[in-house]
Write a structure and sequence with these properties.
The complex is a heterodimer of chains A (213) and B (110). With 213 residues, chain A is an all-alpha fold. Chain A contains eight helices and no strands. The radius of gyration of chain A is 22 Å and the shape is elongated. The mean pLDDT of chain A is 85. Chain B is α+β, with helices and mostly antiparallel strands and 110 residues long. Classes of the chains: A mainly alpha (213), B alpha+beta (110).
Chain lengths: 213, 110
C-alpha cells in the first residue's frame, strides 16, 4: 500500500491575484506556467521557498500585465476610466443629496433624535461605498478583458486627486491636521477595486477553458 | 516591410531564446533559458507581455499544446519565430554589429 503525500499548492491569494490581471487568451498559459514552476521549486527547495518564489513572481507579473493591458487597448481603457470617473462623480453625490433632502424635511425630528441622525450618517457612508462598488462593476463590465486595468487606473487617478487636494488644503489653509477625507477616499478606492474584482471573477468563472473545448 | 522594424532589447533576447529552444519554447522554458544565460531575473508576466507584442507584430506565432496534470490540467502555449521575426533578428543584429564595430568595449580590470 502506498501513501501519497499531497502535492504542495501555491498561495490561493496569489493565484487569485494573477487570475484577476491575466487576459482571457492567457488564462491557460500564465497560471499553468506558474503552477508548473512552483512544483519544480517546491520539489527542489521546499514549500516555503516555492511560496516565496510564487509571491515574487505574482507581484512582478501583475505589474507587467497591468502595463501590457493598458498598452494593448489604451483608448478603450481610457474611455472606460473617463466614463467611470464621471459616473463616480454623479453616484458619490447621491447619498449626500438624499441626506440633505431628508434632514431638511424632518428637521424637528432629527433635532430631538440625534442618535438616529448618527445612524443615518453611517448609512450614508455605507451608501457611498456601495455606490463606489457599483462604479467599479460598471467600469469592469465596459472594459471586458481588462477589468482590473481600468478599475485600478481609475483608483490611481482618484488617489492622485486626493493627494493633490491634501496639498492644496495645506497650502491654502495651512492646516496640516489629520486629513479627514483620506480614510473615506481609501475605502472608496477599495470598494471600486472590489466591484471590478467581483465582475472579473464572475466572468472568469463563466469562461470555458480552452483546453477543454 | 519597414526598414525601422528593429527589435527592442528584451524582444531580441526573447526571440533568441525561442530560436534556441526550437519546439520546446513555452513560458517556463523561455523564462528559465533567459535567466540561465543572462543571469537576469525575469517574471512570467514580462515574458508574456513581450511575446504577445511580438505576436501582434507577426514576429512569432503560438499554438496550444495538450493539457498536463502538473499544470493543473492547463495547456502549454508553444511559440515559434516566423520568417518576419527571423528577418527582424537579423536586421537588429546587423545594426548592433555596425554600431559596435571598431569600438573597444572590453576594459581590463588588472
Amino acid at each position: 500500500m502506498t501513501s501519497q503525500t499531497p502535492r504542495p499548492q501555491p498561495p490561493r491569494m496569489a493565484v487569485w491575484l494573477v487570475s484577476l490581471f491575466t487576459p482571457t487568451e492567457e488564462a491557460e498559459s500564465i497560471p499553468g506556467d506558474l503552477l508548473e514552476e512552483f512544483s519544480q521549486v517546491a520539489s527542489n527547495s521546499g514549500s516555503a521557498a516555492a511560496e516565496r518564489w510564487y509571491w515574487h513572481q505574482t507581484v512582478k507579473t501583475v505589474v507587467h500585465l497591468f502595463g501590457a493591458g493598458f498598452r494593448v487597448a489604451p483608448w478603450s481603457t481610457l474611455a472606460a476610466v473617463i466614463g467611470g470617473f464621471l459616473l463616480h462623480r454623479f453616484v458619490s453625490g447621491l447619498p449626500d443629496k438624499l441626506l440633505s433632502a431628508v434632514t431638511d424635511r424632518y428637521l424637528t425630528f432629527w433635532s430631538t433624535h440625534f442618535n438616529a441622525y448618527l445612524w443615518v450618517l453611517k448609512g450614508v457612508l455605507i451608501a457611498h461605498l456601495i455606490g463606489s462598488m457599483f462604479v467599479g462593476s460598471v467600469i469592469a463590465m465596459a472594459a471586458k478583458g481588462r477589468e482590473m486595468v481600468a478599475t485600478m487606473t481609475l483608483v490611481l487617478v482618484l488617489g492622485a486627486m486626493a493627494i493633490a487636494s491634501l496639498f492644496v488644503i495645506i497650502a491654502r489653509i495651512g492646516d496640516a491636521s489629520f486629513p479627514w477625507f483620506l480614510p473615506l477616499s481609501f475605502a472608496d478606492s477599495f470598494a471600486i477595486i472590489a466591484g471590478g474584482a467581483i465582475v472579473r471573477t464572475r466572468r472568469s468563472a463563466s469562461t470555458p477553458r480552452l483546453s477543454n473545448s | 516591410m519597414s526598414g525601422r522594424d528593429y527589435l527592442g532589447e528584451f524582444e531580441h533576447i526573447v526571440i533568441l531564446a525561442l530560436l534556441r529552444l526550437e519546439d520546446r519554447a513555452y513560458g517556463v522554458t523561455v523564462r528559465q533559458e533567459i535567466e540561465l544565460r543572462t543571469k537576469r531575473e525575469v517574471s512570467i508576466g514580462a515574458i508574456y507581455a513581450t511575446l504577445d507584442r511580438l505576436e501582434a507584430k507577426g514576429n512569432v506565432k503560438s499554438r496550444l499544446g495538450d493539457p498536463t496534470p502538473e499544470r493543473g490540467g492547463r495547456s502549454k502555449r508553444f511559440f515559434h519565430v516566423t520568417a518576419k521575426g527571423l528577418a527582424a533578428v537579423n536586421r537588429t543584429h546587423r545594426a548592433l554589429h555596425s554600431m559596435t564595430e571598431g569600438l573597444n568595449l572590453i576594459r581590463s580590470h588588472s
